[in-house]
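The instructor's notes for this session suggest beginning with a concrete chain rather than abstract definitions. Hand out the sequence below and ask the class to guess, before any prediction is shown, which regions might be ordered.
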Amino acid sequence: NNIKKVEELFKLKSNLEAEVGKVIIGQKEIINQLFIALLCKGHVMLEGVPGLAKTLLINTLSDAMKLNFSRIQFTPDLMPSDITGTEILEEDSTTGKRVFKFFKGPIFGNIVLADEINRTPPKTQASLLEAMQEHKVTVNGKTYTLEEPFFVLATQNPIELEGTYPLPEAQLDRFLLNPVIDYLPIDEEIRMVSDTTGAPKDGAEVVLNGEDIQTLQALTRELPASKNVVSYAVRLAAASRPTLTDTDDWVKKRVKWGAGSRGSQALILAGKARALLAERSNVSCEDVRVMAKPALRHRVLASFLAESEGISSDDVIDRLLEQVPESV
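After discussion, reveal the predicted structure:
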């Protein structure tokens, strides 16, 4: 039965890539990482400068997957109720009685784009993060369950530093992956500009529904990971922790805070999804290595010394990948 499901997955993945490719030029690795996060039931923090089609990419994915898409533009005056929804006093025209009726906010979607999440105060950020963790929303003592699949994609703009409220590390840790979207290669950008400035093209057609995604999410969890691969993922995450006695001195000086247990879990889950998408029935250390940067870069906080030397968390992860052996 699982073999049949895997065969269906490959067909769905190629169909999905074809449909998204009608609208989005390039960015294949980013699309792959978003799909990996979706299979892992994880949320994504996408970083990139404005104008790289982040919103269009997410909108196109939701179109191809027959999912409800919500976009929340985060601003300094955004309130928690603007995300979760609010109760409004309404009068029943037949009885004349006044009752409170709950109007759902944009968090009640399958794919929720939280645009520029770092431009809103912590109180409003927290209302989104609670929904991400619990898949529930509580308003005036009443709890509402969010429809599955539920996938939050937050964006941070790295160049607008004024008027921002950076997410604390503990909140960033709630995101499974932190992909960085970059400029297109010149040849792909030429094709993109040519396509987008001509006659409008058809959008993506539906190839996946919510039920398909939930089946694939269950399949991802079932994929086996050997003790050696799990050990490698845990040792890789642990090597970033400056408080451990056997951590490399270079790392100790350049990392203020390392990846916790969620980092180890993210490496294995993302590795499972990557293996599944590559038509393999088990996770390899290579899967863990490839997913190391998106899974750990937001969990490894560079120290003041590292910043003064121009060393980023990606540079730290490169060193960890060089130093940590795949087997003990």
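Then share the key points. The radius of gyration is 21 Å. The beta strands are 44-47, 69-73, 85-91, 98-104, 111-115, 136-139, 142-145, 151-156, 255-257, 301-302.
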